[in-house]
Amino acid sequence: MDTTTPATTRLTDAQRIDWMRLIRSDNVGPRTFRSLVNHFGSAHAALERLPHLAQRGGASKAGRICTQADAEREIDSSRRMGVALLAPGEYGYPPRLALIDDAPPLLGVRGVLNVQTQPMIGIVGSRNASGAGLKFAQTIARDLGSAGFAIASGLARGIDQAAHRVTLDTGTVAVLAGGHDKIYPAEHEDLLLEIIQQGSGAISEMPLGHGPRARDFPRRNRLISGVALGVIVVEAAHRSGSLITARFANEQGREVFAVPGSPLDPRAAGTNDLIKQGATLVTEAADVINAVQPIMGRPVELPIAEAGDPPLDNEPHADERERVITLLGPSPIGIDDLIRMTDVSAAVVRTVLLELELAGRLERHGGGMICLL
Known about the structure:
Distance between the termini: 46 Å
Structural class: alpha/beta
CATH topology of the largest domain: Rossmann fold
Largest sheet: 9 strands, mixed
Helix content: 40-55%
Number of domains: 3
Mean pLDDT: 91
């Protein structure tokens, strides 16, 4: 079975409050959170510097910083609902999810924690699935569950629902786009309750009370691939959200599996394209197991800091900041390319980008791409 690293982290109550305050503050996403904590040494120290950094990035007014009272309120409300807010490395935080670049600093985990430490396979596909697609999803999910894998999916209609229902007894993880109290679709609240009551779990990075918006589903999809050894796409049309999950899986170094379908069925167009692009064709659970077995023997070693990432510069010179900002625009550019073009140190570039992000002027895309808003 999968070899994972035992829990290596345990936040104090005060640290958990500071982490909550930082990640819930304006313009602080998971990558920015990690950069700030790595540089300043703690979330507490980073919180004190947020207004100054945002001002240097050109913010017209200070962004909202989550108060201690608000952080304590969210932690208490989550606890009452049975949601544990866990940091990477704490028991119950999916070990492989902690390895991705934008791992949630605090993940809301509800249900039995040990299911999160099982080796997982993601199964995604069409909401408007065919009968054959639903049957295949059930078969492969059941077979993988019997082989010791937990199944991760997004609690959506169609393929997701089918995969969850047949693995209630062997382990299934619902990855939510909204808060734990804002289930989408609402008709699956009963399914989520079954998942929790029968010994499986659900995860979300969103606060309680957060109803999912369109842009939250791609964020959710990166978690489905992030927790897993690989992702199976059963049915997906062109421009399907399942293809976004497959793209994230590729970027995260996960295996991508695709189920072939009829070229006459538009619901199979995306999966057939994935196979053309190099995804592993899968027709049974053994195809998946054989592909992931070599990975399962390797221990999961959680990164302590961003390996090879230079420290932030204290304050870039005005001409250096101008060089970086001049090269940015609405079209995404790679950070490595930006460093080469500016001919200034990586530390200076990272500092300027952090300032811009905290000022709400920078947008991050997949694959290390950024653009100016």
